[in-house]
Amino acid sequence: MNRKSLIFMILAVLIGVGLGVGGLIAAQKFIFKTPARSTATASVPKMAGVLLPIGEFTVNLQGGAFLKTSITVEVIDAKAEVLLKEKDAFLKDRVNSVLMNKSLTDVQTLAAREKLREELLKKLNEVAENKIIEVLFPSLVYQ
């Protein structure tokens, strides 16, 4: 191999690596970009209520799949937390009733989980006298 061929091969490899790295950076920046968080929402702290874990649930979904999730609710204040601890069995029953009537497609997508969250919030507030602000899924596994 002569010197000219060696230089040409090294130059071709360097250009190929440069194009690959540049293409990867461009793809991450323009194609796979994540939405930027606004500084206005980051600077304003959210007033959080009291977090109350309801429990971990494992249910058979419609169609043969299963769902394992833990659910925590945000309640308006400490008085509501005490009230809901007394109604723990009723809350768990409502969660089981809602989850057992769902299929795998009802939990797979983000939009479906938001719909599930809204339904759980409505059903739990029937027992909680509208003292629940938010329903959270600290873990959610389906198969």
Main sheet properties: 3 strands, antiparallel
CATH superfamily of the largest domain: Band 7 domain
Radius of gyration: 25 Å
Strand order of the largest sheet: 1-2-3
Number of strands: 3
What does this structure look like?
This protein is of the alpha+beta class and 143 residues long. It is elongated, with a radius of gyration of 25 Å. A three-stranded antiparallel β-sheet has the order 1-2-3. The relative contact order is 0.15. Strand 1 and strand 2 form a beta hairpin. The protein contains six helices and three strands, in the order ααββααααβ. The protein folds into two domains: 3-34; 44-142, Tetrahydropterin Synthase, Chain A, CATH 3.30.479. The longest helix has 29 residues, at 3-31.
Concise structural overview:
With 143 residues, the chain is of the alpha+beta class. The protein contains six helices and three strands. The chain has helices at residues 3-31, 39-43, 78-86, 88-100, 105-108, 110-128, and strands at residues 50-60, 66-75, 132-142.
Which keywords apply here?
143 residues, elongated, Tetrahydropterin Synthase, Chain A, alpha+beta
